[in-house]
Design goal:
Two copies of one chain form a homodimer.
Chain A lengths: L16 H19 L6 H8 L4 H7 L2 H25 L6 H12 L7 H14 L3 H23 L4 H24 L6 H17 L2
Helix pairs in contact in A: 1-2, 1-3, 1-4, 1-6, 3-4, 4-5, 5-7, 5-9, 6-7, 7-8, 8-9
The structure holds a DNA duplex.
Chain lengths: ~200, ~200
DNA sequence: TTTTATTAATTGAACGTTCAATAAAAATTG
DNA sequence: CAATTTTTATTGAACGTTCAATTAATAAAA
């Protein structure tokens, strides 16, 4: 029944799944960077990845599934960055550990333009989608309890909790303000401000 | 040419424009609160405001215009809150002025659920729409230069700028984290943390 | 042969916008 | 004052477009 001009069909290769998933997640972030989530249609994403639209439903079940997978990918990168900076620290004093967490949150993988825009879209969307909201809260709590644990090695309960709350907010705020300015994000300045806050909280025991 | 069952037509009353604009802006925020910007269709908004879809284009030129007007309304409320808290302060010391700015940013008009969700949608959308981006930057700069001016009455240039940058980020971060938790936003705790930061910066001259 | 991989074409729902119709109210004219 | 024209306010059906999702077709690989 189909009308065809040429008898050219795609050449299936085995083991394409992980490659296609990666390609489509990357294309999703790029599309969001270019036109925003609302206009990041599956046709646009598929074209950018060099595949047809059907493949998105095939591997991710649909657009929603692709977006969630993209966000999980970014969260995975953040977790990796935290491990990387933690392991690169000489000793494991609260001071060094806090600095590592701060550095990780401003890691190159997190301040990339397309990643930052995807984060913003994620926040706005997560408010109406329970599945994304859960993802968001898990991440939120992890940052908070990480910070809390480190502060608690030096400060009493309440002070540690408040210090963690403040530092978590400062990190998010610096990151948000960095994301919202169109021109470059001065990461080092943001890191320096967060370091200062962390150090002051540690000193006030 | 229209097919009618009943001979009932709307009863136009003069001077409806400001009333309709207010109704539609309110309905927009409620719709965003309920289903998010993407699903806040003009049909839904119009129904919620108790008017027909055509009226949105009539008064706002379209959906985009309505969203921008909604955001301008929220920004206007923020400006009003800043004036309110500034005027309610006994003297105009840097300390009191900073506290007033902090209070205004956590004013009831700004921590309302529908307002917070609209803010989030605004941030995500502003990244791809120059008109909204300008609106966003004007607001950003106003907060920063307000803070900077107050800190500068006590601190030298560089320290004032860093203190302002830090406090602006802390305010935004506390606000963001408050917006993202589904259950209530502990405004007083956020205000207390911001106060503490402001006070510590003022003391470190 | 079945499974995996993929595409092009198609479908149907949803959406924003436009527009003719309608009438009260206000302004203008005779 | 009465008759008319214009302005303001409003509706809701119709239109055209855009999407996400589905489907039939295709073939290499297992």
């Amino acid at each position: 029944m189909q009308v065809k001009i040429k008898e050219i069909w795609a050449v299936p290769k085995i083991g394409m799944e992980p490659i296609r998933r990666q390609q489509l997640i990357q294309a999703t972030m790029e599309a969001i960077d270019e036109v925003g989530l609302a206009d990041a249609t599956i046709a646009r994403i598929a074209h950018k990845a060099g595949v047809s639209t059907g493949i998105i439903s095939h591997y991710f079940g649909g657009k929603d599934g692709l977006f969630e997978a993209t966000m999980r990918h970014i969260l995975g990168d953040l977790g990796q960055a935290i491990r990387k900076w933690r392991d690169s620290t000489p000793d494991d004093s609260p001071h060094d550990h806090l600095h590592a967490i701060i550095r990780a949150n401003f890691d190159r993988s997190q301040v990339d333009r397309s990643v930052m825009k995807t984060w913003l879209a994620f926040w706005a969307t997560s408010m109406h989608r329970p599945d994304l909201q859960r993802l968001q809260r898990v991440n939120d709590r992890r940052l908070f309890s990480n910070l809390c644990h480190q502060f608690h090695r030096v400060l009493p309960h309440d002070k540690a909790r408040n210090a963690a709350r403040g530092l978590a907010a400062l990190i998010d705020g610096l990151w948000l303000r960095g994301a919202l300015v169109p021109d470059g994000f001065d990461t080092e300045r943001a890191i320096a401000l967060a370091y200062r806050y962390a150090d002051e909280q540690l000193a006030a025991n």
